Amino acid sequence: MGRAPCCDKTKVKKGPWSPEEDAKLKSYIDKQGTGGNWIALPQKIGLKRCGKSCRLRWLNYLRPNIKHGGFSEEEDNIICSLYINIGSRWSIIAAQLPGRTDNDIKNYWNTRLKKKLLGKQRKEQQAQNRRAATSLKQEMKRSSTTTSFHLPPESFVNQSNPYWAPELPVAAVLPVMSYQTHDTQVLDDHQQESIKNMLLKLGGRFSDTTNSMYPIDHISSTSSDQFYQTSTIDQMLTCSPPANRNYAQLGSKYNSNHVSWG
DNA sequence: AAACGACCCAACCGCGGTCGT
DNA sequence: AACGACCGCGGTTGGGTCGTT
Questions:
Q1: For A183 and B7, how far is CA from C1' in angstroms?
Q2: Residue A243's pLDDT is what?
Q3: Pick from A49, A171, A213, A231: most CB atoms within 10 A?
């Protein structure tokens, strides 16, 4: 048999938390901790809330050292880069930003950052279209003087022409950590450490001797496990995952647009 | 000042994996 | 081994706030 039901859904309170509820929850957890059982928590404190709701309130709002709003440019860049690379894995992204919650980052992305990027993307797109149109016109003028070639109608080179307005991938306008497929961009120490920590959390392994993201595929030659060779972001993101639950989960949930697990 | 729409964000919902019975 | 609750996560919602007309 399974466990007893966690709570009676019809008797628990929903909606915004009152300051009194917050105080009760915070003071209890400060003193006693969660006890590893969220479901039992509200009964102990005398809160008419579902354990799940308590957990969410604590993690997203009451927990110490939580930062709200005021995302820095650097945080924006980290969020964007990780989103491009791993998709909407908000908990993983949040792990890279101390004091930020997955919910906060998710909201920030959905309400502001996405628009900010799209705006930037559009500007880039327009500038690119203008440049392309200008050079094409010039090229065609040159050609028309030497051949019987006719200039296309104006509409051919304007933005409404689908030929000239393919959607750029967002990655194309990322301010930092954007990368080209085959470059050999070297990450700075902070970026390396940050990404390394992320991968370690997920079960990745690195060379002990170098303590850096360094090719160690020679070690894996005797093992069925895949080790990471991550001298570039691109390589890191195309390596195979280890036989690890989190990665299995990631692999199945990831869209192949974001990550190829080889 | 009022009405309306857009935006923001806390909280809820549902799902998949884990774990206790 | 099977069942079902628990946990953590990502997606979505709805109410409050802000800006515009």
A1: 40
A2: 29
A3: A213
